[in-house]
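Figure S7 source data.
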Amino acid sequence: MLPGERPPPRPEPRLTGRVVLPGDPGYDDAREVHNARISRNPGAIVFCQDAGDAANAVRWAAARGVEIRARSGRHCYEGFSVVDAGLVIDVSDLRGVRVDRERGVAVVGAGADLLTVYDALGQVGVTIPGGTCPTVGIAGLTLGGGFGLLSRALGLTCDSLLAVEMVTADGDVIRADEGEHQDLLWACRGGGGGNFGVVTSFTFETHPVSEVSIFRIAWPWAELPGVMEAWQAFAPCADDRLTCLLQLRARSSGEIACIGQLLGAGQELYRLLQPLLAARAAPSSVSIDTVPYLGAVGQMGGLGRDPDRWTVHAHQAQERYKNSSAYAYERFGGDAIATLSAALSGAPSSRCLVQLDAYGGAVGRIAPDATAFPHRRALWSLQYQAYWTAPAEEAENVAWVERLRRAMLPHVRGAYVNYMDAEIEDWPEAYYGANLARLAAIKARYDPRDLFHFPRSIPRPPPAAASAPPAARAAE
Ligand SMILES: Cc1cc2nc3c(=O)[nH]c(=O)nc-3n(C[C@H](O)[C@H](O)[C@H](O)COP(=O)(O)OP(=O)(O)OC[C@H]3O[C@@H](n4cnc5c(N)ncnc54)[C@H](O)[C@@H]3O)c2cc1C
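Tokens for the predicted flavin-adenine dinucleotide complex:
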């Protein structure tokens, strides 16, 4: 440029990719989320075809002051991946999975659902420890932690995360890994979706897997106290290859059940389960099966031939629900068990339940500040769940979950960011614990204008705190 010459005008940012606007064919499908309790009307939805589309969308929204939300599998319990009048940056068309068997890594498009990921990896005999529901998006799951039936053996999904490609608040496409932007990678390992930028791809370490053994043990509902006693002594300290969860169903359903998976053979599983099988409470049914890994994924995800027996998540497409969560750091005494029993006795429907996911094993071997996911020392998570179909049933079901959550507070701590619940008042501490200050500093560095804002996004620290080095803050 010659002296005195004006720089050429910067091109106006514009939306690229597949753009769906109100009134367009397909707009209603495009704005829908998994939880039918939530209905929002974005001003535009961009289905990105590459990282450049996401970058253009971020710049376009920033230039206009339009609210943005990143979206992958649409499974946020509170629907925070859609926003009225704002721009949804949807990555669900980025669903390619490339596996490098030699290096033991896979690059996964941020819009892939879990079944796509498991299928592609399973074809070459590897996997990552993801969640149980086949339609959950890899992005939300990984960014918030990611628990599933391989977690006690292989860790949370975020523990296998090696790198992310992300579009930042400036519209730049960057890679965060152990060499560059390490703090951002740390934040992406459990710091929650939607906070720092739009992830367009994830690089994971993969793990060999062939056959697994799965089981389901059911008991009559009246055995709840005895089963709870036996389960809590067993599940968080069982053999690391064994992950299981306990479904305490509403009394009107008649039964409670423990479901799980061993990276190992059926006979060994039967032996390992003896503390549960020989407990004072006598099971009403016991099923054990050794199956190819992809078969187990299908069974547990409700896609198998026997969904009534195996399915972990009862969610169907387009149904209404309210879920909340908490963590047990100590075994429950009689009071906590009585509180659960009383709530399940008075539940509004037989579909209400409390699900306990056993931690320990590989989840607990990682330090609480080594990744953004803080609840490494928890014994198990609790998920308070209510499902219904008619809108008129909403108030009663939501109130049941909230009453139960509050009644359990003396016995639990914290909550899981991936089981988002807008009722939790102390959510920053509940989701992030002692990692909150470091997350807030990373937020201030990568998103100083808080472009990636939503009702439960990581708050920015006051400016003075943001300028201290992150390591010092983490140690505070
Ligand atoms: C039926 C069902 C089953 C589930 N099972 C499990 C389970 O087994 N284990 C478990 O740990 N959790 C489970 N969950 C919880 C699930 O992990 C979270 O709801 C998760 O956030 C969903 O991610 P998503 O991409 O599908 O949802 P979305 O609604 O698309 O996104 C969730 C959050 O992530 C953000 N986000 C999405 N994409 C991106 C992106 N590309 N870049 C940055 N941020 C992004 C969104 O803005 C939003 O804040 C389940 C949820 C449901 C509804």
